[in-house]
Structure formats: structure tokens, C-alpha cells
Description:
Blueprint: H1 8-39, E1 41-50, E2 61-64, E3 69-71, E4 77-83, E5 85-93, E6 96-105, E7 109-115, E8 141-145, H2 146-149, H3 161-165, E9 171-173, E10 181-183, E11 192-195, E12 198-199, E13 220-224, E14 239-243, E15 253-258, E16 262-272, E17 275-284, H4 290-297, E18 307-322, E19 326-344, E20 347-367, E21 370-389, E22 392-412, E23 416-438, E24 441-442, E25 451-465, E26 470-484, E27 487-490, E28 496-499, E29 504-522, E30 525-536, E31 538-541, E32 552-555, E33 563-576, E34 580-597, E35 614-630, E36 635-650, E37 659-660, E38 667-676, E39 681-690, E40 694-695, E41 698-704, E42 707-712, E43 718-719, E44 723-735, E45 740-749, E46 757-767, E47 772-781, E48 786-796
Parallel strand pairs: 1-7, 11-14
Antiparallel strand pairs: 1-4, 2-3, 2-5, 5-6, 8-13, 9-10, 11-12, 13-14, 15-16, 15-48, 16-17, 17-18, 18-19, 19-20, 20-21, 21-22, 22-23, 23-24, 23-25, 25-26, 26-29, 27-28, 29-30, 30-33, 31-32, 33-34, 34-35, 35-36, 36-37, 36-38, 38-39, 39-44, 40-43, 41-42, 44-45, 45-48, 46-47
Amino acid sequence: MEPVFVPTTYYTRYLSSLHLSLSFLIFFLLMATSASSQSKQFKVEGYLYTSETSNPIANAIFKASSGQSTRSKDNGYFSLNLPFGKNQITITHLTYDTLNIKIEVTGNTQTAYYLNLKSAAMAEVKVSAKKSNANKISPNVSTITNDDLEKVPAFLGQRDPIKALQTLPGTGKGGEGNSGFYVRGATSGQNLTIFNDAVIYNPSHLLGFFSVFNSGAVDHINLYKSGIPSEFGGRLSAIIEVNSSRKIADSISMEGDISILAASASLATPVTKNWSISAIARKTFMNYTVWPLLSSMQSTSSSFNNIKYDFHDLNFSSNARLGKSNFLYFNAYTGDDAFGFDARADISNGMDWQNSAYSLTLKTIISNSVVLNNTASFSGYRFNFGLQQDNFVAGIASNIRDYNFKSIINIYLDKHYLKGGIQYVDHNFKPNTPSIRSFGVDYDFGNPNTYYSDESSIFLSDEYKISDQTGIYAGLRLTNYRHKGPYTLINEDKSEVNFGRKSTVRSFLYLEPSLTFKQSISNNSSIKFSFSRNVQPIHLISVTAVNFPADFWMPSLNTIPAEKGQQFSLGYFRDFGQNYESYIDMYYKKMNGLIEFSGGIMSLIDNLKIENNLSFGNGDAYGTEVFLKKKMGKFTGWIGYTLSKSNRTFELINDGETFPAKYDRRHDLSIVSNYARNRSWSFSGSFTYATGNAYTKPESRYLLGGNIINEYGAFNGSRMPAYHRIDLSLTYKSKLNKRFASELSFSVYNIYNRQNPIYIYFDAEGSLEQQRVTIRPKSVALLPVLPSLSYRLLFKQTK
Length: 799
């Protein structure tokens, strides 16, 4: 077969055509691959730390040039989906310098970034970059930071976190001489107050001057009024979560302040690069300043001449980093109060009480999206009341001890934020341990009333981002409550059943579900609906009508059911740019199993069984809250207003007819403002108005057998005068040098001298023999206009 002859020119053309085709194919494939790569999104993830201490930074905002954005989690983790090629990321945080990063994205990337603290004249910036309520899916929470505390006028030179919380809507005030916290128609005992994960049973000092929380030991406070998160349980009303700073100090800082009311000093110092400690102590000297001042401003017969009252408290914190993934936090608080009052030359009264709270938390970063927190805590509260007349001395003591363990795992996913955990609390209550000594002889009351109980809980929640506009939070908490022995149960036929130590007298299971649904209307506004059902197995039982800490706690027993409540809330939340935030929130709350004590404080000295002297009833509350806050600029502040109603129904009170709760307030208004003229001068003011407390008024008196008999009107059918006042303060800040700064504040409490009564009594004038007796109501006011001067000195070690 003859070979086929192919001309050279044809062969050349063939190769050229083939080369062109292959080149075009390769070019096409490269372009397709490039286009595919450029259209594909790659994950850029990692952690954000402080450059000084390598602590994780939460709530930093990441914005990419391609339009994507996210926030760093509690462990500093962040994740962005970015396109192929060159990208620019801007990281911003109110406390740290802005960081601009150029990154070449060619595939999935893991990295770490570090931010520097912003330069400041002295102390660190004390603000937070929390997401506003309009954009959050999670249950509604109000946050008070140290920056907010600085804007509220101080009382006699002392800033108080709880007083700042009381300026928010829905947080009713008890009036002058009362620091109780009455959230949405509930009582102060239906709140769960936590200080660094340890429960505080009595968070106020006497006469409501301020709470047990020293502002220097507080980083921020979270207040949950509705849609209570599942990690909290056992209370009907609100959660008040008070937290100290968990920052590891990188340099020594000291602070001291003194005012007419108290003096305090604090120290924070690094021990190593990954461990720092801090302590703050406060001591009042009211016996030498406040009481003599009030006495000089009142009449010579003023009872302030006979008052002695002082207190001190101490906070200690230790923050340590153990390797790259573990952090250990220890916090301790203890506070002591001592009060004395001489009614007559031969009669004296005294009381003292102490709060203590200790907590140890181990935080473990398991992975990019999993964080575990294990906390062990102890809470203690004791109270002693004594009365002495000549050789007769009587007293009553109350004591609480709690041991608590809680473990929470946090899981961060693309559209889910999961929380789950377990909790165990062991309670020991001694509500009324009496003592009497007469002419050196002690009375024997037998074994004191002691009650033991515990709570074992498991909880789970999911914050699910359905879309950019829609989100849902769902939580569930399951608790097994036990009343334990030793205990003697007395049946209706008077027979007794004795239960041994740790044996179960009574137990029951209860569920606490929580649901919040958020629907965005626009980029800066949303509607939220919340529902929660809460159960409270321990009870605060009020003994006195005035603001003394003589109230005591009791667990649920066979004859004392748990309190139960349901709450619905519907609100509209809106931000106006970065400068303003606002909301309107409506709520309805239903409560069952409420408790009233039928005796008084002196009857407790008889070692009586409290469970046999209680009455039970129901209640409801509903209202509307309005809030507007200006966050930035020279002029800042907020307005909070609540229109509400709170009712009670007890079969044995008011003939079973519904009556207003004592702290039912139709109107409650707070206005807080601050004007910073420059870095040195600032002016703040606040105005408070609230409907007066409800009380039962005697309508007539008559003689029966030579005795005066009072005839009362409807239970809680009358009102005390409306409560209102204005407080002002002027502050001058100066930088002495690179290490030292100072602050001088002048404040005036109750500037127009409003006589807000703490109670009303009725005085009879005239003659019984002539049957001409006139009954006149008289009120007792506590605090007149009070000016004060305070001075603060700050030191921070320079690097």
C-alpha cells in the first residue's frame, strides 16, 4: 500500500488550526475556572484578641468591602464569607482602635487579629458595644454600663447601679426610704438578683440609700423583664444580672474617693502576664456626717438624734488565663450593716445583717464554635434583730445558705446559637430563731425552725435566625424541686410524721418555657412577641410594712405551694441611626400562689411555725412601657415612662374582693440627662415622678367600752401623695499628669426640697371627755434637700 502523501502546507495549516483550537479551549477553561473561583464564596474565620493581654474581644463589628458583616462572639470567634480575590476588612469596637486589613482570598482561611486599646487620659473606656434591642433575636434585655452610671446624679456623692436601673420603664420604685425593685407589678422577692453568678438575697442597704453593689466593682448589669432566658429560673418576675469586669489588667491602677456619705478605695494589679487581681473596699461614716446633718435640718425632737447606722463592704476579683483555651475567674463579696435606734432612754433596738457571695468560674474554649462555662458558687445571708429594755433582752435571727453548681455550653452555628446546661442548688433556711434573756436567764425554745430543700435543673435554648428579618428564641427549663428532712410534718389530725436527714418530704417537677419571636420591619425597626411561664419554689415573706430587712425566705412545703406566673409581652423597637434607640412594650402578667404573713416580727419570737400563719392569693399586672435614649453627642440621656396597674385577690383579705397592690403605680416617669461641655466639665440631672403607694386609710373612730376603735375603708383603697424630686450634679475632671487624674463632683439631692413621705399616720387631737376629737393625717418625710461634695483620685501605671 502506497503511503499517503500530505503536502507540507496542509500539514502546517492543520497543526496551526489544532493549536488555535487547543489554545482557545485552554483559555476558555481558564476563564471558566477563574469566573467560577471569583463567584465562589470562601470562609474567612478566626479569633479576635486584645494585643495587650490576648483576651478574646466580643461584639466587635467586622465589615468587608464586598458588603458582608458580622460580630465577634464571646470567645472572640468570627466568620465571614468573602469572594475570591482582594478584600478589605474593617474591624471596629468602641473600646479599641479601628483596624483596617487587606486580604487576598484564594480559599478557606483561618487567622487571628489583635486590637489595641484606645488611648485615654486615664482609665479604660467603660462602655460596651452591644447590639441594640431592635436587631436582637434573644429575649429583651436592658443593659446599664459604667458609662450610664456616670450620667445619673449621685446620691451624696455615691453612684448606685440599682438606682440607675430604677430609671428604666417597668421598674417601679418603692418610694423614699425604699430601694426595693418592683418589676412589672411584682414584688422585690420575685426577682433573681445575681452578682457574678452568685445569688444576693438582700441587695439593698437600709433606708434605700443605695444597694450592696459598689459601682467601682460593676462592669455592667443586665435586666431581663420578659422572655426570661432558660439558663435562669426559680423566680416569677425579673432577672438582675450584675457582672464585674473579666479583663486581665495589664498595668497597676488605683482609685480612691471620699464624700459626705462614704469613702472607698480600689486596686487592680497584674500578677503575671496572664493573671491579675483587684479589690475594692467601701466604708460609710454616716454616724458622724449624715445623721447629725439630718438632725440639724429637722426639729430638735427629730428621731434622727437617736439613729446609729453604718456599713462596710468588700469586693475581690481574680482573673486568670490558663493556656490558650481556659480562663479562671474568682469573685468574692461580703458586706456588713449595723443599725441601732433608741426609742426611749430605757429602750433600745438594734439589728445587723450580712450578705456574702463567692463564685469560681472555669471558661473553656473547646473549639471555634463551642464554649463551656462551669461555675460553683456560695450565697449567704444572715439577719439579727434585738430589743432591750432594762434587764430584758429579746432577739430573732434569720439565716440562709446556698450551694450552687451550674454548667453551660454555648454552641455558635451559622443560624443557630444554642445553649444547654445543668444546675443544682442546695438550700438551708433558718427563718426565725428566737432568743430571750431575762435577768440573766436564757429561755429554751427547743430546736430552731430549719428547712432544707434543693433544685435540680436541666435547660436548653436555641436562638435561630430564620432569615435576615425573622428570628426566634425558644428555651425550656425542667426542674425537680425537693423539700428534704429532717422535718416533722403535722397532719390535720395532729399526728406527726418524722422525716430523717436528706429524706424527701415532698417533691415536684415543673417546666419553665420561654419564647421570643422577632420580625424586622426595616433595617432599624422590629416587632417582638415574648411569652414565658415561671415557677418560684422559694418565697420572700414580708413581716413589716417599712423598709427594714426583717423579711425572711421560706421554701415550698406541703402547706406552701410554689408561686406560678405567666407573662405575655408585645413591643415595637426602633433605632434612629446610631444615635437614638427607642421602644414601646406592652405586657400582661398573671400570678398565682402569692403569700401574705398574718403575724408580725414580734410574733416570730415565739418560734411559731410560719407555714401555719400564711394566706394565699392571686394577682395580675398589665401596662405599657415607653423608652427613648440618646447615646452619642455632648447631650445624652434617656426618658422612661410606664403606665400600669397591679391587682391582688386574697380570700382572707378585703372580704375576697380585688384590691390594688401596695406598689401599684398608675404613672412612673424618669428623665435622665447629661451634658458634657468638654472633657473637663459635665452636668447631669434627673427627674422622677411616680404615683403614691396604696394604703388602707382609717375613715372613722368611735368609743367602745372606753376604747378607741378604728374603722377602716377599702383595703389599699387610698393613695399616698405622688412621689417626685429633681437631682442635679456638676463634675469637673482634670488630668494631673500622665499617671494621675482627679474628679470633683458637687451634687444636690431633692433640689426643691419635696417632702416625700415614707408613711402616713393619723393623729387625734381634742378631748374624749368633751367628745371633741379631730383626726388629722400626718406624714413623715425622710430626706430634705441635701447638698454633697465628693472627690475622686485615679492612678494608672504608664507603660
